[in-house]
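Weekly modeling sync, notes
Attendees: S.R. (lead), two postdocs, one rotation student

Agenda item 3: backlog of single-chain predictions. S.R. asked that every request posted to the team notebook include the full sequence so nobody has to chase files. The rotation student volunteered to paste the first one in as an example of the format we agreed on. Action items at the bottom.

Example entry:
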Amino acid sequence: MQNFKKHIQQIKKGGTIIFLKKLKSLISLILQIPIYIISIPTVIIIRLIGPWFLIRLGALNSSRIGHFAKETELYFCERNAKINTPSQKYIDFFYLGKKYVCNRQLEKMWRRRIIILPTWLLAPLCNVNRFISIFVSGGNNHEIWHDIRDVHNLLERFEPHLNFTDDEETKGKKILTEFGIPEGAKFVCLLVRDSGYLDRHKKYEYLKRWSYHSYRDGDIDKYVLATEELAKRGYYVFRMGINVLKPLKSSNPKVIDYANSKIRSDFMDIYLGAKCTFCVSSGGAGFLGIPFIFRRPNAYIMVPFGHLLAGNKYDLMITKNHINKRNQKELILSEIFSSNVAVSYYANEFKKNEVELKENSPEEIRDLAIEMDERLNGNWNETEEDILLQKKFWLIFKKNIKNLNLEKPLHGKIKSKFGAKFLRENQNWIR
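Predicted structure, as returned to the notebook:
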């Protein structure tokens, strides 16, 4: 009886929360009505002056750090290269696309470079412009368009568009000393994706829906061997993340579980990602976007496999093992594509196609970290066999990507490397 009463109370509480959410949405909608009314003539004026002076509007994908970092940086690179850029005089205005902002320091730094106006003001203008476009053409000219992947290899052509102020540099160095990092010491960022981050923000429904990315999650325990190997090689290792599920179990003083540290902050997330020697990450984790935009090398385990970020010559990657659930055999390279999961972003698609992702072994992850260290230090001995295996792998990869007949390209010129030891030990996989 007591459990029944408790259950009834939970239902009532849940009903109250739903009612309050709907009431809040209704009040918000009512308050926006005057803004929408004002937006109609404003959009008409913006369209009329467009031939002489173009005003463009766009939303920033501010709730996810990988998108907020990489896509905004690519906007700047395309502007430098005059790609997706108007020929006449123009001005661009942005707004934050979601209520939740993934990192306030990153937002602060972008605000120093672009005009970010309140969402309540700009979102109605965008919506009205799109509505008018149903009846009158020309609305697309007033939206900011840019690629979300570096298909033009722009990052190697242009310097980073973000920088730290002198005060921020001083602050970052001071906090490093609080972690016991000597000045000039090398350090690596480690990010192993898990569901803890999104679970922390369940009140934001659009973040809760990102649970379909669960196939990208990793087990931090499998990365301990790699962190301790890097520590032997003179690196400090910062385990990154927010609200992670498990602690990093290492007694090595050079291995720092920063994600569970009281000193963890939005500022240091960006500072560490910008200043690291390189980053090791799993599942195409969003944090790799920070070293990416600051032109720091990444060693990562990528799924979905076809979405490899392959334009940086210093990047190194492997992928999870793809297992056929019917016979428990590992899929070879070309079978990953023929199984319809190479470019899938949904966990249920892996399930539907009877493909299970098996995490890499601690030894494979360690070998990836070792190879990255030795490549960057000029100590990597690339054999003729390695060159041939890389060539064979990328030929098969590019052929299968082409056969997908995607609407938009995923890659520009491929310059990255796939893990050499992984290829040596899995030569039957490369076919």
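Discussion: group reviewed the output briefly. Residues 241 and 259 are 5 Å apart (CA to CA).
Action items: rotation student to repeat for the remaining queue; S.R. to check formatting next week.
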